[in-house]
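Fresh eyes needed here. Kindly weigh in on this sequence plus structure tokens:
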Amino acid sequence: MLFLGRDPRRFDSIEYGSRMFPMWRITYVRAALQQGPWRATARGLASWIVMVGAPAVTVGVVFTVVSGSAARGLVIAVWVMLVVGVVLVAGGLWAWRVSGLVDKEIRARYGVLWKVESARLLLRPPVRQDAVALAATIDAEMLAGNGWSERDAQVMVKAVGAGLPTPGLLVFEAWSDGSLVGGASVHPSGSDASSRTLGWWIGPRHRRAGYATEAVAALVEAIHDAGFTTVEIGTSESNLAVQRICDRIGATEKDRRAQQLPNGSVVPGIWYEHRQVPAEMP
């Protein structure tokens, strides 16, 4: 059992909707509203209303003057449409701006790695075309070992297939034939800005071929090269395979504590850390 360092249910909040205003952006707006002070939110929305409303008011005044008192009903209808239009347009522009800022922040926190190469693998962010092959790397053994449900896996694969954000997710592509060997996640370790948590899995067709050790070693090195001094890896006390990989790459045991998995179960866990080796002075 390996703790993937990411709750796959985070993708459950990414809904699938219009390409004009993707629903994942609405999810980001909701997150911003929950975390940000309401005064800042009100000021931001008000600024957009003023920006959009200024030309709308000008149009309304000109129309009122030109129409005169004879078309009072039409003037009222135009003003109502202008007010509603200003609120909708300003609200949409504000929401798009806020969701863009949240997306930028998430990419900055989770987009630590772009492409990492090893002898047999290319480790990279997924693209839409990876969805079917990615699903093939997830079997009952992987789900049970990591405490995922089938829905957890389906949500992640669906997000990849729809081209939606999958923060911190990487796939392992074999140089030899382009097949997907497995996947990994890299994400922040709590409040420690100098640390990242790493998790991974290998698909059933490619297990026991040394891919996990190769991928993990390459990822750990790349994370350190990106400026992070510590890489954390969590696994269950019974997973000797992961413990051996940690030993091979030079990770040391940090502590032992219970870990809650995505399906709600709690298991006894071991947490390892790999620290960057200081460069030798010339």
Summary: The chain has two domains: 36-109, 111-275.
